[in-house]
Write a structure and sequence with these properties.
The complex is a heterodimer of chains A (420) and B (943). Chain A is of the alpha/beta class and 420 residues long. Chain A is built from 13 helices and 20 strands. In chain A, the strands form 5 sheets. A 7-stranded mixed β-sheet of chain A has the order 11-10-12-13-14-19-20, with helices on both faces. In chain A, strands 3-4-2-5-6-9 form a 6-stranded mixed β-sheet. A 3-stranded antiparallel β-sheet of chain A has the order 1-16-15. In chain A, a hairpin with a 2-residue loop joins β15 and β16. Chain B is α/β, with parallel strands linked by helices and 943 residues long. In chain B, strands 2-1-6-5-4-3 form a 6-stranded antiparallel β-sheet, with helices on both faces. In chain B, strands 8-10-11-13-12 form a 5-stranded mixed β-sheet. A 5-stranded parallel β-sheet of chain B has the order 15-14-16-17-18, sandwiched between helices. The chains are: A alpha/beta (420), B alpha/beta (943).
Chain lengths: 420, 943
């Protein structure tokens, strides 16, 4: 009996400590239950909030993408680099300004189930594939640069590439082509026009818009053709324009194709009498620097430049942070896009002792519910198709290439605001 | 005691069986440790092995997946290269279909892989690679989708017969046939065709654009040559067809390019993923192997260590048992053997050594093991034997020495006792002297019997006794019955309530004040303090009381309290007086204007005018108001109007009227006034006070049972009856008698009633000052007061006031004012209305009048020519300079200037004072015209 007692006494502490270790390792049950119709993202204490950044970061078009990222960075600075006590983690991917580039970059972002939202893209072509993929995956995406009407709505109706969860603070350029057409027909008295797109939905959207408005007024589209992205021989297409007897060439292209068209046109004597007009994608310092004096007299149609003290203040911050003036003003739209997104995240986040729970559907609903939000570009109200800004368009003329993009933006020849 | 001593002691104290138990428990613990080490090592190794298995599997799957992906891509590219060579359908069958099967396999593997990583317990890094795996999986799916899409696109262009290229070739051939014969057009056609062919080789869009441009030129050329309309239409149609097909090809090519671009992007994306996955898995395997090796090593060392420790522990325990059991037994046996041989002084080392006899109680002074206890028993036995053997002699020696020591001690104690007794006698003498000479009475009594054991001389004196008068059995319990004590609240005290009797009963110290009443002896206030005297057993043996006669102190206290009450009353009345005085002054000024102007108006209105009567009414009301102000001042006792002719009967009526309202109806008031009473020169207020006090006192004596209050006022002339009332001088008096049917006044206190603070009333009912005050007032008025009283019948107070030979003026009698003789009068009053009014009145009387409202200006005017004025009439209260001050200065300028001071009210001015100053007359506002004219004439005529 005594022996048994001593065995028990010796073994008991050992058993007790094993039991204690076992129970101390069991986690307490989680108290949060996700009721979101898509799903919830849970960010543990100290873990970062992940945002996928999809922009065009290679090639000639990269300055546009870079300005978008800077707009986002300025917005993050405003938050002191964190949101609800969590740092940001940006996964930056290059779309190469193509739809397939967008599709592959989107795959990289969507592979991570912790990804909360996508900030992008630069080019509408890339946005088309990204928007589709991210919408299927239940994410939210917001852009400060995409302006193709196909992505949201055309004529107040759902556009072919509309997908729920896509938002933009950049302008729906449905009326940009119209603005250019009215200006060409009424102000310049042009009746015959040739248009060139690059097959991308952005440029096609613009040339389509131009065609409809111009023909409606009684003008004639003598040539409606396309070039391929990456093409360098522009002489044949310029010859076709010339042959068609166009008085004006409307070529809403990106760099470098836009640059090549302009240079090529300047080498053909007959182009002396043909008016050249491009779009917002070329309202860019790098473009003006590249074409120099050859750009003189060229017209651009693009969204009206935002003005006001908030714009000036942000421009100062930009200058301070990057030690250079902004290359274009689309960083303002990017900034607004980022602020709208971050505000919505803060609004829907459920905090639970350092842990954040974010409902994916709730985030979309929060942005669709944005009303009269004071952005630097103006009051933002997001409609059911994801358009958050009310566009106005200006026609600009490049008179003094040496004075850079700012002087171009100030040289407004014609303005048009949508009837809405 | 430090730990190094505690452990051996603890060990010695354990029983042999528990020592053995402890040793075996230690061994058991060591065995358990070895087992636990082995068990945990096995678990760790098992886990690591599992991890190796999983990681190897992951590695295998990743490689397989990667191989499949690569193979699929390769087959796809081969398809792209081969279909123009071997034909679309064959290439599709040989390359594209296997490529698709491969990709399906890849998707399947990646799903398995994902599952594997999700389910198993792999490292965190490998778990994080799930994101990469997601990407891999989606890329694979996308590859499959885009492959199919691309095949469709390729089919659109390259399919035999129906593909875009085949249709383009046919259209071109058709056009060549139509154009045959038109050389100019044929040249352009060939140019166009060559551009198209170039495009088909390098697939650059601008080449097709060049073909389109040539086609444009061809159109133009057609217009320059003659062609039949059907021919022209056919050419145009074919050119349009070619353009449409070419546009379609361009569009499709753009899409194919995009797809190919897509493939290269996919490859770029997934290439690093499989590399990193393989690396991670390899790393995981290596880590698990390292873990197994280290666990083996650690377990080996641990077990070897424990085994070594076991050897040491076994040796140590063996050694310990040897020392603490076997060796001790050997030593004990050796000593026992010696004892057996006869050596009685043998002690065992394990136990304590005892000397002399040993008590049973010390046997087990601390715990020991069994051998230790045996040793103790052995040593005790040895010691006891020794004691028995040693002889009794040593015992006797010890006893003798002890007795000697006791004797010495006793002797010392006797000497100490003698000295203490002497000290005691001395102390007693000192105490006796202190008691005998104490200024307070001291009494000591026995607790049980109450018999007085000691009382000092002062004590006897205080008790109004002497050694002769005190009874032989002076006992406190009986002595307290000789008198009656009262507590300060008035309750009669019980015999046990006195301090000493209380202490003797309760044994608690006590100190109280009380009043002693004893027949034939004056009442005395006593203070006594008593305390118990406790004997050695703690019982109350006797009680001591220290006591003092504090009658004198009590009286002094009583007087002080009365004085304080008086002072408070005086302060209160002074405050009311100041207030009333202020009001009276303002009010008198207003009345002066009212009465003055009414007077003037009265004079102006002819007799029989209806306003005349109304003005008369104003004057009557004014006069009543004037009296009212006087009453206010009188009430406040501040009126220093001095003595005037007073009809006592009027005051008496007023007082009776007042009393009726305040005394109970059980008291009947009878009033008898002799109409022949003459006025007396007196202060109205004080007379009022006298009558009120006497009547109130009388009423209070009848308060309980009711009675008759008889008041009479008669005119008496005393000559012969003087002896009846001492202090009375011969003459005529107004006699006021107040008689009651109350309880009367005891004879012995009758001569004390006029003393200040003497009272028979309860506290709060009277101050004891009433009769003293009456006495004072009567004395000041050269009168006499006398009292007659019979107990239980009643009292009567007689007050005699000398009558005046003057008559009181009839206020209502109409007397014509005395007229002036053109004298120049300076009138000074800060109230413009009064100054003007006075001027007008005096001018009507026939005086020349200068009126001024500033005292300073008046003084200046006077100073310039003091001779021009015959009389100055001034108000007293004026800003900057009072009338009194101005009058002084005027008198200092011209000594004989007659001045009349009129005042609303001034506490600092009275007739006596103004007279001393040289002011001829003092008029109280409001002044009636008659009074004013009389005063002026009197002053002027006196000169």
């Amino acid at each position: 009996m005594q022996g048994f007692k001593s065995i028990v006494l010796s073994v008991l502490p050992l058993v007790l400590s094993l039991v204690l270790i076992f129970f101390s390792c069991t986690d307490p049950p989680p108290s949060f239950e996700c009721t979101d119709s898509i799903e919830c993202v849970t960010i543990g204490p100290g873990e970062p909030l992940k945002i996928g950044v999809l922009q065009a970061l290679s090639g000639k078009v990269s300055p546009l993408g870079q300005e978008q990222i800077r707009g986002l960075e300025l917005a993050i600075d405003r938050q002191n680099g964190q949101i609800l006590g969590h740092p940001f983690e940006l996964q930056v991917e290059d779309t190469g300004c193509t739809s397939e580039g967008g599709a592959n970059a989107a795959l990289k972002i969507l592979a991570d189930p912790q990804m909360v939202a996508i900030f992008g893209t630069t080019c509408s072509g890339a946005a088309r594939t990204v928007s589709h993929a991210m919408s299927d995956a239940g994410l939210t995406m917001i852009s400060g640069n995409n302006s193709a009407p196909f992505l949201t709505s055309i004529g107040g109706k759902r556009a072919p590439d509309f997908h729920p969860g896509f938002f933009r603070t950049s302008n729906n350029e449905e009326n940009a082509g119209k603005t250019a057409a009215i200006f060409a027909f009424q102000t310049l008295g042009i009746r015959r026009v040739a248009t060139i797109n690059d097959g991308d939905i952005y440029t096609r959207g613009l040339t389509n818009g131009f065609r409809q408005a111009f023909e409606k007024q009684g003008g004639k589209i003598v040539l409606d053709t396309a070039i391929n992205k990456g093409e360098i021989m522009m002489q044949p297409v310029l010859t076709a324009v010339k042959n068609a007897g166009a008085q004006l060439l409307f070529f809403p292209l990106f760099q470098p194709e836009g640059n090549l068209i302009l240079r090529g046109a300047r080498e053909i004597p007959e182009y002396k009498d043909i008016v050249l007009m491009s779009d917002g994608a070329l309202i860019e310092n790098s473009f003006i620097q590249d074409v120099g004096e050859k750009g003189k007299g060229m017209y651009f149609v693009g969204p009206a430049k935002p003005k006001g003290p908030a714009v000036d203040l942000l421009a100062l911050e930009y200058q301070k942070k990057y030690k250079a003036p902004p290359g274009n003003y689309y960083y303002l739209n990017a900034y607004d896009a980022a602020i709208v997104l971050l505000t919505a995240i803060e609004k829907i986040a459920i905090q639970e002792s350092g842990t954040l729970h974010l409902g994916r559907e709730a985030l979309r609903r929060a942005i669709y519910g944005t009303r009269n939000f004071k952005g630097v570009t103006g009051n933002l109200t997001c409609d059911e198709f994801g358009d958050c800004s009310r566009p106005a368009f200006d026609v600009l003329r490049l008179d003094d290439p040496g004075a850079g993009v700012t002087a171009l933006q100030e040289n407004v020849i014609f303005s048009y605001t949508s009837e809405e | 005691m430090d730990i190094w001593h505690k452990i051996p002691r603890y060990w010695q104290e354990r029983s042999i069986s528990s020592k053995f138990a402890l040793g075996s428990r230690l061994f058991l613990l060591l065995i358990l440790m070895v087992a636990a080490t082995g068990y945990f090592s096995l678990i760790i190794v098992g886990k690591a092995e599992k991890s190796i298995l999983i990681s190897s599997e992951i590695q295998r799957l990743v490689l397989e997946m990667d191989r499949g992906m690569e193979k699929s891509h390769r087959l796809y590219y081969t398809f792209l290269l081969q279909y123009p060579v071997v034909g679309f359908e064959k290439a599709h069958q040989q390359y594209l279909q296997p490529s698709m099967r491969q990709i399906a396999q890849v998707i399947k593997i990646s799903e398995v892989l994902k599952h594997q990583i999700e389910q198993s317990n792999v490292s965190r890094a490998l778990q994080a690679s799930q994101i990469d795996l997601n990407l891999y999986l989606s890329s694979a799916r996308r590859f499959a989708e885009t492959s199919i899409e691309s095949v469709e696109l390729i089919t659109q262009i390259f399919a035999p017969e129906r593909g875009g290229e085949a249709r383009l070739v046919i259209a071109l051939d058709d056009l060549a046939i139509v154009l045959a014969g038109h050389d100019a057009l044929l040249i352009l056609f060939h140019e166009m065709k060559s551009h198209t062919q170039e495009y088909r080789i390098v697939r650059k869009r601008f080449m097709m654009q060049s073909a389109f441009n040539v086609s444009f030129r061809l159109h133009r050329q057609m217009e320059l040559i003659s062609l039949g309309p059907a021919e022209r239409e056919k050419i145009t149609g074919l050119l349009g067809q070619i353009r449409d097909i070419a546009e379609k090809i361009l569009e499709t090519d753009l899409k194919i390019k995009s797809v190919i671009n897509d493939f290269s992007l996919q490859q770029k994306a997934i290439g690093p993923i499989s590399d990193s996955l393989v690396k991670l898995a390899t790393f995981e395997v290596a880590q698990a192997r390292a873990k197994i090796a280290s666990t083996h090593k650690a377990a080996l060392f641990l077990m070897a260590g424990i085994a070594l420790l076991g050897v040491f522990v076994a040796f140590g325990i063996g050694k310990l048992l040897n020392i603490s059991i076997t060796e001790k037994l050997v030593r004990l046996t050796k000593k026992a053997r010696e004892f057996r041989r006869g050596n009685l002084e043998v002690f065992v080392d394990e136990g304590p050594v005892y000397e002399g006899p040993v008590d049973e109680g010390v046997l087990d002074e601390r715990p020991r093991d069994e051998i230790g206890q045996l040793a103790v028993t052995f040593n005790i036995m040895s010691a006891r034997m020794n004691v028995l053997v040693n002889g009794l002699e040593s015992k006797v020696d010890v006893r003798t020495k002890e007795l000697q020591a006791t004797n010495e001690k006793l002797r010392g104690e006797v000497e100490e006792r003698i000295k203490a007794e002497a000290d005691l006698v001395e102390t007693q003498a000192i105490l006796q002297a202190a008691l005998d000479n104490s200024p307070a009475g001291i009494l000591i009594a026995d607790a049980k019997t109450g018999q007085v054991q000691y009382i000092n001389e002062v004590g006897l004196l205080t008790m109004d006794e002497s050694r002769e008068t005190i009874p032989s059995d002076f006992n406190v319990f009986t002595y307290v019955r000789k008198f009656q004590g009262y507590g300060l609240d008035g309750h009669p005290m019980e015999p046990g309530e006195y301090p000493l009797t209380n202490v003797l009963r309760n044994g608690k110290p006590i100190s109280i004040e009380y009043l002693v009443k004893q027949t034939g002896r004056p009442d005395r206030f006593m203070w006594a303090n008593a305390a118990p005297i406790i004997d050695a057993r703690g019982e109350v043996k006797a009680g001591i009381s220290i006591f003092l006669d504090i009658t004198q102190r009590k009286k002094a206290e009583q007087e002080r309290e009365n004085l304080e009450v008086q002072l408070r009353q005086a302060h209160k009345m002074e405050a009311i007086g100041t207030l009333a005085g202020g009001i009276a002054h303002d009010f008198n000024n207003l009345l002066a204007a009212i009465i003055g102007y009414a007077d003037l108006a009265n004079e102006d209105i002819s007799q029989g005018h209806p306003a005349k009567d109304q003005i008369e009414e104003v004057l009557k009301a004014g006069s009543r108001a004037k009296d009212l102000v006087k009453q206010i001042l009188a009430f406040s006792r501040k009126s220093e109007l001095g003595r005037v002719l007073v009809q006592v009967s009027l005051i008496l009526k007023e007082v009776v009227h007042l009393l009726r309202a305040s005394i109970p109806t059980t008291i009947e008031i009878r009033l008898d006034i002799d109409p022949g009473c003459r006025p007396v020169l007196a202060d109205q207020t004080q007379i009022h006070q006298v009558i009120l006090n006497l009547c109130t006192n009388a009423a209070q004596t009848m308060e309980k049972e009711g009675g008759i209050l008889e008041i009479s006022l008669t005119r008496e002339t005393y000559g012969a009856k003087l002896f009846e009332y001492p202090g009375l001088t011969p003459g005529s008096y107004v006699q006021l008698s107040v008689k009651d049917t109350g309880h009367g006044i005891e004879k012995q206190i009758l001569d004390k009633i006029f003393d200040p603070y003497f009272t028979t009333k309860k506290i709060g009912k009277g101050s004891g000052m009433g009769l003293a005050m009456v006495h004072g007032i009567v004395k000041r008025h050269k009168g006499v007061i006398h009292v007659d009283s019979t107990p239980n019948v009643g009292s009567v107070f007689h007050v005699f006031l000398p009558e005046s030979d003057q008559d009181v003026l009839d206020q209502n009698k109409k007397v014509n004012p005395l007229v002036g003789g053109g004298e120049h009068i300076l009138v000074v009053d800060d109230e413009e209305a009064i100054a003007d009014m006075t001027r007008m009145r005096l001018e009507r009387l026939g005086y020349k009048v200068t009126s001024i409202t500033s005292s300073q200006e008046a003084l200046e005017l006077f100073g310039r020519d003091p001779g021009q004025f015959d009389l100055v009439i001034t108000d007293q209260t004026m800003p900057h300079m009072t009338g009194e001050k101005m009058a002084r200065q005027m008198i200092s300028i011209r000594k004989d200037i007659p001045i009349i001071l009129s005042t609303g009210y001034s506490s600092s001015i009275d007739e006596e004072k103004t007279g001393q100053m040289g002011i001829c007359a003092l008029l109280m506002k409001p002044v009636e015209i008659r009074e004013l004219s009389e005063c002026i004439r009197r002053v002027l005529d006196d000169l």
